Write the structure tokens for this entry.
Amino acid sequence: MRIRLVARPEPSRLAKWGSPLVATAAVLAIGFALFSAMGRDPWHALYVFFVEPVDTLYDVGELLLKASPIMLCAIGLAVGYRANVWNIGAEGQLVMGAIFGGGVALAFHGAESPLVLPAMLFAGVAGGMLWAAIPAFLRTRFNANEILVSLMLVYVATLVLSLLVHDAWRDPEGFNFPQSKLFTQSALLPILVQETRLNVGILLALVAVGAGWLFLRRSLVGFQMRVAGLAPAAATYAGISSSRTVWLGMLIGGACAGAAGVGEVAGPVGQLLPVVSPGYGFAAIIVAFVGRLHPVGILFASLLMSLLYLGGEAAQMKLALPSSVTGLFQGTLLLFLLAADVFIHYRLSIVRAPAPAARAA
Amino acid sequence: MPPRLKLSGITKAYPGVVANAGIDLVVVPGEIHAVLGENGAGKSTLMKIIYGAVKPDAGTIAWEGKPVAIANPARARRLGIGMVFQHFSLFETLTTADNIALALEGERAGPSLPARIRDVSAKYGLPLDPDRYVHTMSVGERQRVEIVRCLLQDPRLLIMDEPTSVLTPQAVEKLFGTLRRLADEGCSILYISHKLDEIRALCHKATVLRAGRVTGDCDPRRESSSSLARMMIGGDLPHPQPRTAQPGADALVIRDLTLPADDPFGTTLSAIDLTVRAGEIVGIAGVSGNGQKELLAALSGERLLDDAAAVTILGTPAARLDAGARRALGLGFVPEERLGRGAVPEMSLAENALLTGWRERMVAWGFVRAQTVREYAAETIRDYGVKAGGPDAAARSLSGGNLQKYIVGREIRQRPRVMIAAQPTWGVDVGAAAQIRQALIDLAGSGVAVLVVSEELDELFEICDRLAVIAQGRLSDPKPVADTNAEEIGLLMAGSFIHAGAEGHRAFSPAGVLGLD
Amino acid sequence: MDHAVQLLLLTLAAGTPLVYAALGELVTEKSGVLNLGVEGMMLVGAVVAFIVAATTKSPWLGVAAGMLAGAALALVFAVVTLTLQANQVASGLALSLFGVGLSAFVGLEYVSVVIEPIKPLAIPGTPDLPVIGTLLFGHSPLVYLSLVLFAAIQWFLFRTRAGLVVRAVGESPQSAHAIGYPVVRIRYLAVLFGGACAGVGGAYLSLVYNPSWVEGMTAGRGWIALALVVFATWKPWRVLAGAYLFGGVTLAQFQAQALGVEISAQYLSMLPYVATIVVLAVISRDAATIRLNAPASLGKPFHPDG
């Protein structure tokens, strides 16, 4: 007798939406074991990690604040992933968005015009798209793998930012620290809820969720991108251009990530620093999958991811645990999700060892 | 002497279908035994069970009188069972010798192998070059590799799964010669087919399967095609209503279409000319792998050409237009692969209607009108007798025949003026095949120009008005069906119309392919 | 002259982690499996090797531990993709992200620990060369071992029957299954081998090349190794050449400083990444060559039916 995987005739919807929950539960269990092993009271540690970060209005504001860039990036990535366009360079596109948007903020430093913010957003989106256009071009023109190119460009973008804040854009009054001038009021996103740091960036992210849903589920082009992801030969057969699919997938991802970059520098960061994102662009990859590449799923998954960031910070401050536990949990979450996904297309079946020779017909 | 192979009560069920239900089968030494049945009758599953690739749920297998459990193909081979697969189990980027070595064990795969390959291929009239790479070979040559690979294992039972679907009529005769010789030497042969004439010509005995059960045992040499058909499908083979073509204006014109292979394993098309007129059905016959795939991609718009005039659809040069633009001109296309090309397996039938049918008022302001899409799908299901759960059923939940009816219906309902169908009845049950052929005939009757590319000669003779043959990337001049016969077409399929020195070239020479330098 | 010799040694040293990681990935890919988790496996290999070496004071135990750690991570990938049929691209990304997180977590307390690095082989008669920091460990036994690994893989893949089987499985798992080869088991072994090699590549970084542990110290080498396999069109000797080429590129930074060239460090740091992109584009544009050399089933799941 042994256990075997048997294909289901139809994919299971229950398993499809249950597996993110299973993966989350698995992360909690791992956390429990890990905190115990490190000699902490696991219940208390889990409380500090997952509950305390959201027990005041200010904290909820922080949760939404951190969720915004992740949500934006993940929506953009999901559009591409649906079409088998594997943009894993959202982090780099985010940084480029921050550079372009930040550049506008610095160029109009001190200007009171209400147009500064829209201009920053426009520039940031353009920057993200420009950075995403490189892998799109190399893929459509030279067939170069977009996974590797977009990832390499993350390193390049980070180095470009470093170059700028160390040199051309360094604040002359910044005591030689690698940082730009602080942005002035007109270049900062308005606060949405008083007494919190939550700014209008979350609205931008929610708009992206809605637009993403409309695009993927209701528009012809979104449908065609899903076809390209599920069955490339069917897409070609139906006259859906594969270059258009790649370009759209990359550019939408780049635009969203670029906007997220502006949201960071015009929001909680407020200036250009060598590092403007603690890996939101990579976290967004996980969020896109945990959210089932579905905008509504992504909405919830990005809240979970934001909580992991806040929990990591809280654990560091209150429990003297390393904040890198966040990264560990992120990776674990995705691995468990992918493993649990097997039950979407398969079910377990217990089979008796076949012994036809020993059995009467 | 005990029978070589005796199956009793073999049963195998998959989710939703019983592929084999209590099957009994006896094969004696030196016998060529046909297993006859239409697509989906359970022949392939039964052969995989004998070859150890699939485990039965119940039943016993006796080999030369002793009960055995055949756990895997390696065990089957050690017993002396060899199998030639319908979709070959060869490795394209390896040589003949490597391919054969992979199936042999220990000593047999040693340095003397190339010599033994030459011996066996000479003895049985199956010429092979051990050092050639498989991807440079024609399908017929690949089949020879598979057969020689089996013969080198000294089989006492050889399973042939639909072996003639890749051969010209003349090559079929040669293959039969080889098989008869093997049988004379005492080897048993299990011959899987749905072609009644072949079985009557070759086999000593036949077991007929229908829907997973044995429906008859007979000596096929004493049966007629119609008596075999009754056992196979439970009725007579349907024939389409005859029709006289009254061709109209030129609708699809192919002029000097030349296209280098884009895939190193592909075929280059050379100077293809063909005209299909409104209201007629033109067929293209040929052994698979001779450029059909490439020609269809060039006609459908899945591959673009430089010379716009190479393909003209209803007077518009179209060779530089993509598949969507050609549809807008009035082209309909039923591709060979249903799942993954003609339809998205995971998507619903409604979404698969949207795939090519969105120009039928299914989209407003860039957004999909879901209700219109569902109605279109529901009407297609109804009008073409598709057995499906409704517009929301996933494409892959349908049987091959039903999905093909749906795809054909979806294309026809877009009112094309030129229709191209590739292998329209491949892998489809007899009833659905007849329905699809009739639909194509009716379509031509309504004034549409129809081009059918098929490897089934019988089908082409049944529905076409004119017939051309593709070989090595070249196309013969079309002939009216009434003026030709299977023998002549068979010679054309072997490339007899290609003048010396004008040989169609394959994209790559066998040497230096893998760079194993 | 000294300078040229030294440059050569440094190039060998800088290329070696790429040689390990890319050769391992090559074998994995030859079996038809695309494991994008090389970066994660290298990082975990690096950190585990470092911890074990620091704890036991035995760098060689560290190398062995790094190898096992890489293989252990690869095992996770194998279970998820080969047994549980998950998408290989997504799982590989997950493995990389997981490896980044895991290595940062377990390595936290070792960030400023100093260890005894693996000593270069003392070859008698070799003249002493001028030393620039820790960069002159190019003589490390691990460098020679990487060359042995190269020869062994070349021989295995193209001269042995087992290598033929691996290639056959990567070419057509359906055919290999049909004639009776245990496709999943073979792929498991190939994936584990790839992980072990990536682990050694990581160990080389933390024990030899730059004896220390720094978060994210692979700096994208795992991804470059993946690009190298494409660049090499799945041929071991081209992997070797490519690895040294990229090793040389990473040295530009130090060379420029040594030569007193006035250029921002960031520009030089960008070079390996930009070079990877350029090379990838140049190689990939020849689709026919890729098609002929890439294992035909690369990245596609296989489920032995029935």
